[in-house]
Amino acid sequence: MANARRSAAKFAKETSRILRHRGRRLAAPERERIAASLKDLEDALRERADDARVAQAAQRLRETLAPHAETLRRASVFEYVQSLGTAVAVALLIRAFVLEAFKIPTGSMIPTLMVGDHLFVNKFVYGLRIPFTNRHFVTFGAPQRGEVVVFEFPGDGDDRGKDFIKRVAAVAGDRVRLAGNHLIVNGRPVENEVVARRASCNDDTLVMCRCDIQKERVDGLEYLTQHLSEVDPSDPVRCQDTRPDWPTEDPRMYGSRGSNGDYPEVTVPPGHVLVLGDNRDNSSDGRYWGFVPVENVKGKALFIWWPPGRWFRAVH
């Protein structure tokens, strides 16, 4: 009979709510009669009366309510507002602390993420942030090599405060560089395998170009990156990969000799990560504007939920 008692308790709670929000629709005598029957049921439950008494009290309450079922059926305006407010509050809490939707605006993460992809970002994975700030009041961990993260742009200019998405190439203390389109971390090349040569770049800004696609493996994670293919006599001049290595001598780049005391490597400072786009030759990333403070990282990319054909594809 435990289920019957639980049902009676739920019935009493629901009746109490209805009477509180919709009871004024009834004349005072009817409202008092329902309230008295409700009190009998609540007393029986509170006093842990035998199952027969509980059942009898519940039945009396049903009989008292029955003539007024139509009058009490419609929810009040306050209940609608309350339900809407609760739904909005829950949605805001989820967005602030758990999941947030993000749209890919550029091709910097091709072939992993395409322009227009919509994805969910796990904001809980690294800790709980104080809303509208970059401060955490609870920390669970830090971004790791190979993870795709969303972060607040760390520099000045028009992009200040905007959300960016890139892949973590190196973490605090790592020495990192690019040589011959190979990522080298702490003196060791990241394991990679070319899976396609002179393939489509799938990038509108490189529509006349061809790209090599390679699979990289780091710390148990496996993902794809791409870069411009070697120059062919038939290739347009603008498709030539003139900057495969990094740091470079180009003073406009963050890792150049003029800005990096550890040239020809870059050492990631404490509390920061270095991020790169998977579309290595068409990405504005840490090679240009430097390191990202860990506190700027909002979360880790989970899966794509739009467009059709890419639904629920996990982001690796």
Give a written overview of the molecule:
- The chain folds into two domains: 2-74, Up-down Bundle (Substrate Binding Domain Of Dnak, Chain:A, Domain 2), CATH 1.20.1270; 100-314, Ribbon (Umud Fragment, subunit A), CATH 2.10.109.
- The chain is 27% helix and 28% strand.
- It has helices at 2-22, 28-46, 51-65, 69-73, 77-97, 286-289, and strands spanning 99-103, 118-122, 127-129, 136-139, 148-152, 163-171, 175-179, 182-185, 188-189, 191-200, 210-218, 221-228, 266-267, 272-276, 292-293, 297-306, 313-314.
- Strands 1, 2, 5, 6, 14, 15, 16 and 17 form an eight-stranded antiparallel β-sheet that branches.
- Helix 1 (2-22) packs antiparallel against helix 2 and helix 2 (28-46) runs antiparallel to helix 3 (51-65).
- The model has no long low-confidence stretch (mean pLDDT 87).
Helicity, as a percent range: 25-40%
Largest sheet descriptor: 8 strands, antiparallel
Count of domain modules: 2
Report the uncertain regions: none
How many whole angstroms does the radius of gyration measure?
30 Å
Strand content: 25-35%
By CATH, the topology of the largest domain is: Umud Fragment, subunit A
Rounded mean pLDDT is: 87
Name the CATH class of the largest domain.
Mainly Beta
Overall geometric form: elongated
Strands, total number = 17
